[in-house]
Fold these 2 entries.
Entry 1:
Amino acid sequence: MEIEIASKSGFCFGVQRAVDIAFKLGCKYSKGVYTLGPIIHNPKVVEQLEKASVHMLNDIDNIKSGILIVRSHGLPPNIIDEAKKKGLKVVDATCPFVKKVQTYAISLKEKGYPVLLIGDKNHPEVIAIRGYVNDEIIICESVNDLNKLDIPPKLGVVAQTTQDYEKFKTIVTNLLDCVRELKVYNTICDSTVVRQQSALKLAKKVDLMFVIGGKNSANTNRLSNICSIVNPKTHLIESSEEIDEKWLDSISKIGITAGASTPKWIIDDVVERLKNISIN
Ligand code: SF4
């Protein structure tokens, strides 16, 4: 059984940075270090951080004192202000590329452009961006939304960093028919694009594809969808334990990719399990 790993897969710069900050603070203070929601969308990494004294809570009311780490997707500014008012030390681990989307949205609004964000309305990154423009934003999840939305004649556009480029392009192209003035910032992160391209290339040439990552991770799910289109034998798994040996019957070439929030040790573990299955 041959195994090939996509040339670009696993932790991206922003996730690596956030996780490093969290582990460092957990080691240094050993208690009173918190994140609101998962620091990244990978339950295995969140589990490890918990062991390293970085605790995930969902409500700021439950944090009485200590340090609040702003996760890679960012947090709405009212939550950050509330944390500061409570006397918490706030450490910002927002990915700089996510920060850029927040900054563009603010600047478009200040310049008089109603802002349209291409993204998933319930994603934490989108929720944080909404907060930076006081909720004065139009969220477009798909090209079909354009018929239902009230699109003003002058518009500024940004995208959630992990959106699919083709979808972004289609929506922007369709917007040209609806507006008179359009200012567009392509804020899709390169790490996302290169991971999608390299996964697609690999999925086309293997018998079976594993996409490793959190099932709650938007970019991992998108990788899995992209691979499934060209390779129906695509499996999204969070860890090696989920591999069903029956999937590997009559398979000679396996491809592996991993979402931007998947650490190398989980990828190595999957490869190890596959090698063991192959030997036995
Ligand atoms: S995918 Fe891009 S925007 Fe998202 S955390 Fe990674 S580097 Fe930052």
Entry 2:
Amino acid sequence: MSTALVVGAGVVGLSVARELALRGHRVTIADPNRPGEQGPSAAESRILRCAYGARSWYAELTWRSLGRWRELERESGQQLLVPSGVLSFASRGTATGWEERSLAALRRLGVPAERLSPREVARRFPAVGTEGLEFALYEPEAGVLRARPAVRALAASCRVLGCAFVRGEARPAGPGCGWTTPSTGPT
Ligand SMILES: Cc1cc2nc3c(=O)[nH]c(=O)nc-3n(C[C@H](O)[C@H](O)[C@H](O)COP(=O)(O)OP(=O)(O)OC[C@H]3O[C@@H](n4cnc5c(N)ncnc54)[C@H](O)[C@@H]3O)c2cc1C
């Protein structure tokens, strides 16, 4: 079994730590703050969509992440994803082609996505104004991630898998890496 130090208990650090622990590594996670306490990952909510232009590798990752969040919902017994659907708007005249490229990438990957005309947007989403709209890209399975509870659920899962948490800031220490611990010890 190898050991790993993960610096930062945001969504990325915790996901890496969890995956390493699942693969049998002994993991320590260092962060001056408690998970879900500070930083962008600890916000109330984050949009989870798969449309990212022509970058189909990124679309594929986000599509796979939906399944992993649902897995964590089952494990934690709480709702983390709110499947509201996500609309992206292509404006008439100023469209950059981003929405078209996104749609093509999603269709290649088999990710549910629809091209909605302004008339269809008005019919299905009457609260949305359609003036200047060329079309909208609708991802019915995308939605909102409840970011703070999601990060805390990830941290809880890491603990169950045996990860150790240390409160401290990592600093480069010559050829290796060390950290100072401003608090009294593990959280
Ligand atoms: C306003 C805003 C809106 C956003 N909206 C969205 C959105 O809708 N959808 C979306 O997908 N993304 C969105 N993002 C981006 C998303 O929130 C971030 O990409 C993601 O949270 C980054 O996670 P992270 O783990 O890399 O970093 P962070 O969440 O920043 O976590 C880094 C952690 O590392 C710790 N740390 C830093 N330095 C050290 C050190 N030296 N030693 C120990 N610990 C350290 C910090 O304390 C922190 O806990 C948004 C970002 C912002 C700012």
